[in-house]
Design brief:
The complex is a heterodimer. Chain A is an alpha/beta fold. Helix content of chain A is 24%, strand content 33%. By secondary structure, chain B is mainly alpha-helical. Chain B is globular. Classes of the chains: A alpha/beta, B mainly alpha.
Chain lengths: 424, 286
């Protein structure tokens, strides 16, 4: 069952004609204009643009495949080809089962029609019969949570209601292959959670889901596997977790470098930022280390030392330092404040301060450190004086901190050891 | 990859969709259209509902518009210019021709715009695109049916009661006119996406057609030696048949009827082919 291939693509490619560029003379512009309209006048390869080139992959039935890539990497073109909206210029694809697609929220919805009428419209666009839609009607209305408004024109809906209805229609109507383009970004968090569960359920039913998203967390949580597109080419076909890491490294090339080869000491004296002006440049450098010496690579559960060298413009007291640890998709993992350590709110005007994390609770991944320095004001107010975004980057390896089997996947967000006692 | 050949057999019951580069079909797939037949109904329904909802007079506009036009024409041509209608009352005489003519032009224009007006839809979801012109034809048929009802009342007012031949043949003639209009529109529909100019050009051409067809005047004013050319116009037959059906104006058949029918059939067939070839690239040129 699970080994059935639901989607098979071979050498898919799509070529578009680049709109005539503005050239020198009026005559040339005129020629360019006609070139755009007629297919017979001479064209050379430079007039074309490959939005997608030689893309091949397979998806098993019941699998949720993530598709990630930058804007313009060909994701939408791929989905358009698979949903049949446009034809490929080269290659072929084979899809088993009825294909339902939601390339845009609310496709086919007419503002003047009621929610109920639009459900039928959207269903018919997917090729479903009236009887099939009627069977699912109550479930769709219920899932979207709009039962009171189902007979009101959708133009009176709030945008939240509108997208909830659209998503419910696409995901609840029975199609064997569901193609979703950036639709998880819709709705409030409760609805998003419900949708994610629903997509998982779809996959458990043996139906196949193709999911395009810029939300790397969603891809990581929901997909087993993901493909990465870059400039129209498939550059990676990996387990979702690795694909996301691979993709994120391609966006931030510096993260692609092996962290072991980067020096653990980062000079920050000259760092400038538009978002965070640094009038005093108090923080001079940062260094990460374990008890056995400076490094960029840590083991889960190890003691982590973050040493910040600083020089205040004048003696500020009380003052504070903060360490923010964020993961590769920008989620804040934890924050450490110096003033949690009661006696440590007064520091000399210059020196090195060490933040000591006794047991590093992070699992495998790449993490960044943001640094903050400021003045503690009366009544607990804090005034920032210096801030450095992404001051340094480090990697964590899980090893066998959690289990006798090393490097387990999907172990949650934090590594936490616990005590186990026989009490009964 | 290794196991995939074996899997092929276990899933034969499932519908398999093949997408290949360079596939070009000359005709739309009938089975696909049948799969989506309910979509046609919904498109028509959607159009009617969205057009008349939130109008105080609602569906009455479908009646008021042609009635007002008829009133103007009757005053100008019937009373002021006193056009010769071979003795038939002018309002009935002109309305009997205006209905098939407007059915033709509206169908042609609706079919022409059917792809362009739904670009947002066809660039986001797949369904057989030929559904759009079919739905356009169907909804014009709906509007015409309403106008036909008014015509029958108007005719009865002047003493022409609906006959059996009218009841039987009028729908057939209207369908043929639909096909003629669609034949013209299908050519334009696929091209208009690329050359928007086609739409206003066609609209002007159709206005000219109004005068090349015996609508505001009687066909008898056309010189005899030009009649055969005049009668190749499929709408000549559309209009004259309608008058024959409604007010029993004599209809003289000759070879030009068959020639114009052939012309219509060829136009429509080619229209479908042109449409099928071009609709595949529509989304790419937007």
């Amino acid at each position: 069952m699970s080994s059935e291939i639901a989607i098979r693509c071979q050498g898919l490619g799509k070529r578009y004609l680049v709109p005539a560029r503005r050239r020198g003379s009026t005559m040339e512009n005129l020629v360019g204009h006609f070139k755009e309209y007629t297919s017979l006048v001479g064209r050379d390869e430079a007039d074309y643009f490959w939005a997608l080139h030689e893309v091949g992959f397979e998806v098993r039935a019941g699998e949720i495949l993530g598709v990630v890539g930058r804007n313009g990497s060909g994701k939408s073109t791929l989905l358009k080809i698979l949903s049949g909206v446009t034809d490929p210029t080269e290659g072929s694809a084979e899809l088993r089962g009825r294909v339902g697609s939601l390339l845009e929220v609310g496709t086919g919805f007419h503002p003047d029609l009621t929610g109920r009428e639009n459900i039928f419209m959207a269903g018919a666009l997917l090729g479903l019969s009236r009887a099939e839609i009627v069977k699912q009607l109550d479930e769709i209305i219920d899932f979207a949570g709009i039962d009171r408004f189902i007979d009101a024109p959708v133009k009176r809906y709030s945008s939240g209601m509108y997208v909830r209805l659209a998503f419910s229609v696409a995901s609840l109507l029975r199609s064997d292959i569901l193609i979703l383009d950036e639709v998880l970004a819709v709705g409030d968090s409760a609805f998003r959670e419900k949708s994610e569960k629903n997509i998982n359920k779809i996959a458990n039913d043996g139906r196949t889901v193709l999911l395009v998203s810029h939300n790397m967390q969603a891809i990581r949580h929901m997909c087993e596997r993901a493909i990465v597109l870059d400039k129209g080419r498939l550059v990676a076909d990996l387990p979702a977790d690795e694909a996301v890491t691979n993709y994120l490294r391609s966006i931030h090339p510096d993260e692609g470098a092996d962290l072991r080869s980067l020096p653990p000491l980062v000079d920050l004296a000259a760092v400038e930022s538009e978002d965070w002006p640094r009038p005093f440049k108090t923080i001079k450098s940062v260094e990460t280390a374990t008890l056995s010496g400076p490094t960029r690579v840590f083991q889960t559960g190890e003691t982590m030392l973050i040493r910040i060298a600083y020089e205040m413009p004048r003696l500020i007291k009380p003052c504070y330092f903060t360490v923010f640890v964020v993961n590769d998709v920008g989620e804040r993992m934890f924050v450490s404040y110096s003033y949690h350590d009661q006696e440590k709110s007064e520091f000399p005007q210059r020196g090195v301060i060490e933040c000591r994390i006794e047991v590093l609770p992070l699992l495998d991944g790449i993490f960044h450190i943001d640094l903050d320095f400021g003045e503690v004001q009366g009544l607990g107010g804090l005034r920032y004086l210096d801030y450095i975004d992404r001051a340094t980057t480090f990697a964590v390896e899980q090893g066998n901190y959690l289990s006798i089997r090393p490097n387990l996947k999907n172990q949650g967000l934090f590594a936490l050891r616990s005590r186990w006692l026989a009490v009964g | 990859m290794v196991g995939s050949l074996l899997d092929r057999d276990t899933t034969t019951s499932m519908r398999v969709k093949f997408i290949n580069a360079g596939r070009r079909s000359l005709l739309p797939s009938l089975s696909e259209v049948l799969d989506h037949r309910e979509l046609i109904v919904l498109f028509v329904d959607r159009h009617i509902k969205s057009r008349y909802r939130q109008m105080a007079l609602g569906i009455a506009w479908a009646i008021l518009e042609p009635l007002f036009q008829l009133l103007l024409m009757s005053v100008v041509f019937g009373f002021l210019l006193r056009v010769n209608t071979n003795g038939y009352p002018y309002p009935v005489y002109v309305f009997a021709a205006l209905i098939p003519w407007q059915h033709f032009t509206r169908t042609a224009m609706s079919v022409t715009g059917s792809l362009q007006d739904n670009l947002a839809l066809i660039s986001k979801v797949y369904f057989p695109r030929i559904i759009l012109p079919i739905a356009a034809m169907a909804r014009e048929m709906f509007d015409t049916a309403i106008q036909l009802a008014i015509l029958l009342i108007l005719a009865a007012f002047y003493g022409y009661y609906p006959s059996l031949k009218l009841m039987l043949l009028a729908p057939v003639v209207l369908v043929l006119i639909s096909l003629a209009g669609a034949g013209l529109g299908l050519w334009a529909a696929a091209i208009v996406v690329r050359f928007r100019d086609v739409r206003p050009a066609l609209s002007i051409a159709l206005q000219g057609g109004l005068y090349l067809t015996p609508i505001l005047y009687a066909a008898s004013v056309v010189p005899q030696n030009l009649r055969f050319l005049y009668q190749l116009n499929p709408m000549y037959w559309g209009v004259e048949t309608f008058r024959w059906l409604l007010i029993n104006q004599p209809l003289v058949w000759d070879w030009t009827l068959f020639a114009s029918l052939m012309l219509t059939a060829i136009m429509t067939a080619f229209g479908i082919v042109i449409f099928s070839i071009n609709e595949r690239t529509t989304v790419d040129v937007l």
